[in-house]
């Protein structure tokens, strides 16, 4: 959802594109199976067929959609890119390629920009989200990406760093064990596809709940989104979120915070927070970013 101002009044404009953010796997060998054509369906790090298949189902031309895998965040782009291509081919995708952007000057190359313009889906790999934003932020590539997401039937999919970088606010550093010590969580600007949220990945497996707590208490307007591995969110119209994959999504809502010591303590001291609301989502559950209402798909209290 985008806000724009006309004669002092703010109006909401629906986003046409779809955002798929996934909490799984960083560039540490998870994607380097030598026989991935046979193992794609059982790989639980990222190439889990359910999430990948959902990307194809949601895309404009299904298996014939033009997909560009973007490896900018990765330290091993030449190794990681082809494995994504193999995984997608295993699900029937017929028009997939890897787009390597390793320097800022490449993000203004006419051939690179044309490939982005022709893409129906871009899939950003894992790695380092700060590397991703520092290379792409403010470039012609970035401008075209945002325009396509806002105005076309287009999908931005990102895993790990690719997911963390999707929002306007981005966590790029912070120890899990010391995350609730003031100043331990570092935040900068992301790619800006979605406002008023902040995204963390590998969330359950790496115990990162404290990172979201600190991010949200600093600005309770922001909704914290914690994505478990092999788990993601499909976000439609910039507001309707559906949990996909096999794990958990944790939402941290700070709008009802009653008290904190955040501004009274020194850097490195522990943060206190009163009345912080959390939600836990699993597959098929939905959450609306306008109303902040969650719907549990298999609710025990739903009318029979």
Q: Can you walk through the features of this model?
A:
With about 300 residues, the chain is of the alpha/beta class. It contains eight helices and 19 strands. The strands form four sheets. Strands 5-4-6-7-3-12-13-18-19 form a nine-stranded mixed beta sheet, sandwiched between helices. Helix 4 (about 110-120) packs parallel to helix 6 (about 140-150). The chain is globular and about 50 Å long. The two termini are about 35 Å apart. The model is unreliable at about 5-10 and about 25-50 (pLDDT under 50).
Brief digest:
It is built from 8 helices and 19 strands. With 304 residues, the chain is of the alpha/beta class.
Helix content: 10-25%
- Please give the alpha-carbon distance between the first and last residues: 34 Å
Mean pLDDT: 86
Report the sheet-strand fraction: 25-35%
Task: Give the helix tally.
Answer: 8
Strand order of the largest sheet: 5-4-6-7-3-12-13-18-19
Radius of gyration (CA) equals: 19 Å
Structural class label: alpha/beta
> Which sequence of SSEs, written as H and E, runs from N to C?
EEEHHEHEHEHHEHEEEHEEEEEEEEE
Main pleated sheet: 9 strands, mixed
Gross morphology: globular
User: What oligomeric state do these chains adopt?
Assistant: single chain
């Amino acid at each position: 959802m985008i806000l724009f101002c006309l004669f002092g009044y703010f109006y909401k404009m629906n986003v046409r594109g779809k955002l798929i953010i996934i909490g799984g796997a960083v560039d540490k060998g998870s994607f380097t199976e030598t026989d991935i054509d046979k193992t794609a369906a059982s790989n639980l790090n990222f190439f889990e067929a359910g999430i990948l298949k959902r990307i194809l189902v949601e895309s404009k031309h299904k298996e014939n959609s033009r997909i560009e895998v973007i490896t900018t965040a990765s330290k091993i782009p030449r190794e990681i890119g082809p494995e994504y291509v193999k995984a997608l081919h295993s699900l029937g995708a017929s028009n997939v390629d890897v787009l390597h952007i390793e320097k800022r000057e490449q993000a203004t190359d006419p051939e690179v920009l044309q490939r982005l313009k022709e893409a129906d889906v871009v899939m950003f790999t894992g790695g380092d989200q700060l590397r991703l934003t520092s290379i792409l932020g403010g470039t012609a590539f970035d401008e075209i990406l945002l325009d396509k997401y806002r105005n076309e039937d287009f999908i931005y999919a990102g895993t790990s760093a690719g997911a963390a970088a999707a929002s306007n606010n981005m966590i790029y550093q912070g120890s899990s064990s010391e995350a609730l010590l003031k100043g331990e969580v570092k935040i900068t600007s992301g790619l800006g596809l979605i406002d008023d949220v902040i995204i963390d990945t590998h969330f359950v497996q790496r115990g990162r709940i404290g990172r979201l707590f600190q991010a949200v208490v600093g600005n309770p307007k922001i909704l914290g989104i914690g994505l478990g591995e092999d788990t993601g969110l499909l976000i439609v119209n910039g507001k309707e979120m559906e949990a996909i994959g096999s794990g958990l999504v944790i939402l941290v809502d700070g709008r009802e915070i009653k008290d904190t010591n955040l501004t009274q303590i020194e850097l490195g001291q522990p943060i206190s927070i009163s009345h912080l609301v959390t939600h836990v989502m699993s597959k098929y559950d939905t959450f609306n970013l306008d109303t902040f209402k969650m719907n549990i798909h298999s609710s025990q209290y739903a009318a029979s």
